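Let's practice the habit of predicting before peeking. Look at the sequence and jot down your guess about where helices and strands might fall. Then scroll down.
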Amino acid sequence: MDEPAMPQKSSRLRRLGVIVGAAVLTAVTLVGGTLSVSANTRAPVSDTASSAPACVAPERPLSRDYDAATRRDAAFNRTFRHCFTTINGVQMHYVIGGHGPNPMVLLHGWPESWYAYHGIMPKLLPGRTVIAIDQPGLGDSTGTPRSMTTNAVAEYIHLLLNRLGLQRNVQLVSHDIGVGVAYAVAAQYRQQVAGLFNLDFALVGKSLKFNDLVPLAFHFSFNQQKFSEGLLTGRVGYFLKNFYPLVSKLPQPIPARSVAEYTRVYSRPQVLHNGMDFYRDWPTVDKDNAVLMQKPLTIPVRLLSMDVIPEWVTLSQQSMKDAAPAATGTAVPGAGHWLTEERPELVVSEINKFYPVS
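Done guessing? Here is the structure:
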């Protein structure tokens, strides 16, 4: 499918840049479905300094401050690189590092971004190429997908991986709603995926329906409401700071620096909207997954669950077996939902056991 070309710098802005002695760049930013001009968007800063693989079909980022959390992290920028490329009208953002033969793709959940994995990504590098993707329409990806159902989002991930030359043997690691997307990738594009390593999520479609989940956490219902975005606009940071502890035994399970990063990306109007649409479209996912589960997965599947909500462990583990009868899993004692932040060493150890480096 044809993809739109990136906008060019305005000659008027170039003249202004000479006058003020600064390079002023023109970028188009999608804000709530409309186009506006941003003069603060830069080319990825790590392009020349990083040892990471080169970006494929690189583009100038449409998202402002995409590297706010990493631009001063010299060690990270020596190893990883921010990349942008457009898939079916949505500019996708991903962070890549390593040159190993085993491609590992990390998919985040809500309300987080690729940054949920930044702390463990260097530890996953030996023998691997590690790619953390901002889900289409979330994080520093720009644009609104045709739908936020997991089947639709999975198509963007699939096409991005194809563009990166990863048509086979992709090791998927996913958390929260990223698990739903990872499952949809594996179930629809079976030759592309080597396995699913999942962090704390339940797959609807067979023994479990979305309505079964609604009583377990208020945000399942809240996020579906049309007024939710209006209530959170301008209050995203306050909401997130108070939301994260609700599914953890720790008073502040997400570090302040990470909360600031997630506040930044979810304060982008399109990201707030698209994140809510994940939940609004979930009843459709019930039906989509019911069809996909008619053909069980045969690849290795594993799930680590939190133990904050006891009934959640049984529901989530059984839901994995609905999709892959041979799936294995366990609850992490004392852990909440935010496993990469709460139990990073355990997560890395479990990933390495599940995906041994060849």
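How did you do? The mean pLDDT is 88.
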